Amino acid sequence: MTHPAPLTLFNSLTRETAPFVPIDPDLVRLYSCGPTVYHFAHLGNLRAYIFTDTLRRTLNWKGYAVNHVINITDVGHLTSDADAGDDKMEAAAAAAGRDIWEIAAFYTAAFKADLAALAILPPTLWSVATDHVQDMIAFARTVEDHGAAYRIEGGLYFDTTRVPDYGQLAGARVDEGVARIDPVAGKRNPADFALWRASPVGEQRQMEWTSPWGPGAPGWHLECSVMSLKYLGRQFDIHTGGIDHREIHHVNEIAQNQAFTCSSATGANVWMHNNFLVDRGAKMSKSKGGFATLASLIDRGIPPLAYRMLCLSSHYRSELEFSGENLGAALTRLKRIVAGVALLRTKADTGQWQRALAESGDSRGASTRYQRDLVEAGLDAPARALLARFDAAIAADLMTPQALPVLEEAIAAKTIPAEQRLRLVASMDLVLGLGLLTLDRRALSIRPADATLDDDAVERMLADRDAARAARDFAASDAIRDSLATAGIDVMDGDAARWEWRPRFET
């Protein structure tokens, strides 16, 4: 493998950055907390999956195959992340007056479509919570048998005093998390949480199963422990999620894992969390009609990859401020990169290697080793020096803000032959996931949902403008240009694309 800079990752459990050493040298086992499918994913939620995708692509690029599991929460997640309130799925179904299984299927499909639009690789396995309820019951019974759970009227609750170092992942913040948890009659300790929530007497949920603790549904924290250990083993490599999960959800996962295995094993060796998407200007507020979802970006004519670029421009552990200005800058930067790659394609003989690259691939990414060997073959010393700098940046806990300028430098490095520069782009993009070898500039111009003109009408107006300019009727030419501008279209004289939709970044 070329330029094997040691991969270091920040572990939220130890609060240290350390070299990553997989349990199995040939296969990394990775688990990511998935969505609760009661609504469309928020842009802040989607940042977690861009981060995880970058991690997975980096592991592949560094030579590891990856067994990646993402769960779908279609039961058990309460309206409060602090183990309180109603089940989000039940609440959504009741509010919509719809069947809860239909709600789950619709929003699961919508979530997967969002990931595809952001060029996020699908996991090796989608693990659906309701397919594993019997596994959860068996897991909870074992925890109870080990003396770490107790029964109350509300169901089966985990006794957090029965595991050592409870809350280590959250650190001092565990007390703040406990303060958010509503009291439940019969709980022994404020931090105790539900393994099984019994249905109230006289009520029946849409999603309900029989259990030793009465009819009801599993607790939210339980499902990730059950599915991660089932598919990845009692101790696996990496567990990812948003930083909000670090305070309660992942703390409780670890406690369950330790009680189940009667050991200090936390489930994952490395726990990784991306930071928040910060909304200082209320740009993402659904109540104000803001940029709440990926669909809301598309409706404004903003391509999804602009949001991926925005996320890559910031380190995953840093807060990322969401604003129209930042999103616009990310789109402009992406367009500049795409234009540079398009120019390289006109100068380079990609030949067989690009066709072979397009045809290769597998679900765990083992073929990335072949892809790197393919595209990096024959690189001279200057090109390899750039690749080494990119490798050093991405190996330093996924430092994408430092890796992106190396990509831009590679595109512009005129002392390096065009084909070698294109090969550098191909290798680096295996990590960045922007699809730069095939991405067309026109794909970065999306027609806004409220556009008043279709593409054929725009082309006719441009043809009329060309005719007016040829006749030196500049007043008519300017009037057509102004009409197009009013409709949200920028005319680009001297550019091969000729025109594009103007994305709206304001709310």
Structure description:
It is a single chain. The chain is an alpha/beta fold and 507 residues long. It has helices spanning 43-61, 88-96, 100-117, 133-145, 174-179, 220-232, 249-261, 294-299, 304-312, 324-347, 351-359, 368-376, 381-395, 400-412, 418-432, 455-470, 474-486; strands at 8-11, 16-19, 27-32, 65-72, 78-80, 84-87, 125-128, 149-152, 155-158, 193-198, 216-218, 236-242, 268-274, 277-278, 320-321, 489-491, 499-501. Helix 10 (324-347) runs antiparallel to helix 15 (418-432), helix 14 runs antiparallel to helix 15 and helix 16 (455-470) runs antiparallel to helix 17 (474-486). Strand 12, helix 7 (249-261) and strand 13 (268-274) form a beta-alpha-beta unit. The two termini are 47 Å apart. Helices cover 43% and strands 15% of the residues. It is built from 17 helices and 17 strands. The chain folds into three domains: 20-275, 3-Layer(aba) Sandwich (Rossmann fold); 302-439, no CATH class; 451-501, no CATH class. The protein has a five-stranded parallel β-sheet, sandwiched between helices. A four-stranded antiparallel β-sheet has the order 8-9-10-11.
